[in-house]
Amino acid sequence: MQYRHEELSVKKRDRTPKTYSRLTHPMVRDEKNGPLRRATWDEALAKAAEGFRQSRIEHGPDSFAMLSCARATNEMNYVAQKFTRVVMGTNNVDSCNRTCHAPSVAGLSAVFGSGGGTSSYEEVEHTDFILMWGSNARFAHPIFFQHVLKGIRNGARMYAVDPRRTSTAEWAESWLGLNVGTDIPLAHAVGREIISAGLHNQAFIDRATTGFEDYKKLVEPWTLSLAEKVTGVPAAAIKDLAHAYASAERAQLCWTLGITEHHNGTDNVRALINLSLLTGHVGRWGAGVQPLRGQNNVQGGGDMGAIPNRLPGFQDILDVSHRTKFETAWDVVIQPKYGMTLTDMFEAMEHGALKAVYCIGENPAQSEADSEQALRRLKALDHLVVQDIFLTKTAELADVVLPATAAWAETDGTTTNSERRVQRVRAALTPPGEAREDIEIICAIAGLLGHEWKWADSQAVWDELRSLSPDHFGMTYDRLEEHHGLQWPCPDTDKLPSSFLHGRLWETNPELRGKPAAFGLVDHDPPVDLTDESFPIRLTTGRRLDSYNTGVQSGSFASPLRRGEYIELCPEDAERLGVQVGEEVKVASRRGTVTAPVWVDPALRPGLAFMTMHFPDEVDTNQLTIEANCPIAGTAEFKASAIRIEKLKSEQPEPVAAVRS
Q1: What is d(CA 218, CA 198) in angstroms, rounded to the nearest whole number?
Q2: What is the per-residue burial (b if ≥16 Cβ within 10 Å, else e) of 364-398?
Q3: How many CB atoms lie within 10 A of CB 236?
């Protein structure tokens, strides 16, 4: 059975994706299992505040958690984490950063002391070599990919490492189609070949790094032939990549969720950073490592302290001097311990330790791995307050629903993209109905809990943040407007910051060079959910160009590219299973079962299937994924589930149902 791309066109499914109505008024639930009803703002705010108060009185401050929003402004995230630490007295604040790029932040911080990508987007246009590893940026980060295309047009060579021959890989000079979960063996083999060929930058290694000899011993067993057996990538292709990357004058190494959404995501990140240290491709113009962040302010949320281990400006909570500075400014005692990550929060819900959650702009009911388990845990909470622009699946579970403004069109403030650039956003539209700005709502609840916060506007919030974060001090609103955004760190109001980080590593003076960058000694650890005779197919998940996350926002808008959710198979597997394009099949993992139509994609290899999380109301892919978490960052292994595919006995699809193993 032969398939060509032009033969794969089928009629769109006769299903209309669920659309979500804009929230225009507050709602409350009178009884635990009763319906949500319309309420006044005073009633809703009072109920929200009282639930938080009772949780703190009866169970202590750590019974509360805040889920902050990666799509809201920096200013909102600053106020949200301040509410958590000052009003509620806990460090239990996190966001969807935990779901995607927390391993990037953890890995970069461990090596360089800073959790941001090292380069600017402009540098990608002028580099000599671009390595896209586990990243279908053409679909998932289309704006960034325009910079990649400019780089290619300017003469850069691009290589792609990905289990699928994605739309991004089609632009590459070489595609290395590795087996899911074998990124570390491949990276180690590349590193070994670079050392064996004498292409490593020994001068940079001696001056700016530690742990090279141990790293050299670690990668020595990973010969090209062994790596080929484990990764599925031909030895010649691995050797070619090693020589091309190491020989380039300047190289950019970019990754996304194909690296981070694994049970060992932080180790994966460290394995890639090792390659940059080995070759000196970091700390120079055009040479660096770049995790591509998907949501408009997922970088900024972490920078603002909406994470459990860092205060605003990425200042470690365990550092007494950092805590003292914030305690003095806020007139509060900050807990000298890390709070719960998003992963920890859901486990604490399971055990009854977490009682109340304030969820702003997040939809964990549909974005968490093993979604049936996530729903059960959210339902077990004593008090759930959701602040959002749509009545999401998570909001439907809430005791109080608060209508907010859309950060990108109805709010003033700033956001930070994945090149660390802080940019202004401005309100252009009037919010509908009774919707209020996020900061106004948070301050109203804080007031009911005894904290009268008054900021004249978003600039006043930003100036408070600037006074506490050296990395942001030089970024006044006027300067951000004048320069169309600035990259952190920007400590001075009269100097422009460098576009790239860690140039210090090239200093000959040890005092100027600072702390060396450490090689990461990480071992291969296969996916937790192993394939076998019962579950013989590896499912990996990702994004498509036409949709966004769980589809709450993008699903209401028509797209000529959108075709709903499918289980994508290679032609060989479709023929072996006896299934046709458009045919409904049962897809089962060790956690759950869904029905989905088949799509045949020649870009996939035998034994590999692909789905997205964009249409959970239609096909809840996260019923299949596994909550196997990175022990360092807490990110789940969305990229590696074991499944089987069964033909349905009738033409009608079976209802979606969870099957617990």
Answers
A1: 17
A2: bbbbbbbbbbbbebbeebbbbbbbbbbbbbbbebb
A3: 10
For residue 598, which of 609, 606, 590, 607 has the smallest C-alpha distance?
609
**Angstrom distances, CA of residue 410 to CA of 360, 391, 435, 438, 531:** 16, 18, 10, 11, 47
**Alpha carbon 165 to its chain's center:** 22
Q: Say whether 493 sits in a helix, a strand or coil.
A: coil
The alpha carbon of residue 544 and the mean position of all alpha carbons in its chain are separated, in whole angstroms, by 15
Geometric angle at alpha carbon 275, from 531 and 629, rounded to 5°: 35
Each residue's pLDDT tens digit, 84-107: 999 999 999 998 778 678 899 999
Helical spans, DSSP H, in 280-396: 298-303, 320-330, 342-351, 364-367, 371-379
Query: 413-433 as b/e, with b when 16 or more CB fall inside 10 Å?
Result: bbbbbbbbbbbbbebeeebee
Structure tokens at 537: 């197919």
Using alpha carbons, select from 56, 48, 2 the residue that is nearest to residue 27: 48
Q: How many CB atoms lie within 10 A of CB 192?
A: 24
User: Tokens standing for 637?
Assistant: 């292994």
Q: Which residues of the chain carry a pLDDT beneath 70? A: 1-17, 99, 546-557, 616, 650-661
Buried/exposed 618-635: b ≥16 CB within 10 Å, e otherwise: bbbbbbbbbbbbbebbbb
Phi, psi of 207 (to 5 degrees): -85, -40
On the CB side of 371, how many CA atoms lie within 13 Å of its CA? 24
Please, are residues 80 and 306 in contact by the beta-carbon 8 Å criterion? yes
* Structure tokens that stand for 78 in this block: 């600053």
Q: What pLDDT is attached to residue 456?
A: 94
Q: What is the pTM of this model?
A: 0.92
Please state, in angstroms and rounded to a whole number, the distance separating the CA atoms of residues 414 and 458: 9
Q: Are 63 and 70 in contact (CB under 8 A)?
A: no
| Closest CA relative to residue 110, chosen from 221, 246, 233, 273 | 273
Neighbours of 131 (CB within 10 A): 29
For residues 218 and 523, give the distance between their C-alpha atoms in angstroms, rounded to a whole number.
8
Residue 207, both tokens: 């001056």
| Per-position DSSP letters for 68-132, written without gaps between them | --TTS-HHHHHHHHHIIIIIS----EE-GGGTTTHHHHHHHHHHHS--S-SS-HHHHHH-SEEEE
8-state DSSP, 314: T
* 302 close to 112: Cβ distance less than 8 angstroms: no
> Which residue has tokens 């969305």?
638
Query: Minimal CA–CA distance to 271: which of 283, 287, 253?
Result: 253
* Residues whose CB falls within 8 Å of the CB of residue 636, separated by 6 or more in sequence, listed in order: 99, 261, 263, 343, 368, 369, 625, 626, 627, 628, 629
Using omega within 30 degrees of 0 as the cis cutoff, is the peptide bond preceding 489 cis? yes
Q: Which residues contact 576 (CB under 8 A, 6 or more apart)?
A: none
**pLDDT at position 548:** 64
Nearest CA-CA partner of 404 in 42, 23, 141, 97: 23
Strand ranges across the sheet with 356-360: 36-38, 27-29, 400-403, 383-388, 356-360, 64-67, 93-94
Measured CA to CA, the distance from residue 96 to residue 613 in angstroms comes to 14
Please give the Cα distance from 270 to 251 (Å, whole number): 17
- The pLDDT assigned to 6 comes to 36
Residue (of 285, 353, 278, 308) closest to 105 by Cα position? 308
Instruction: Measure the CA–CA gap between 79 and 447, rounded to whole angstroms.
Output: 13
Asked if 634 and 100 touch (Cβ cutoff 8 Å), the reply is: no
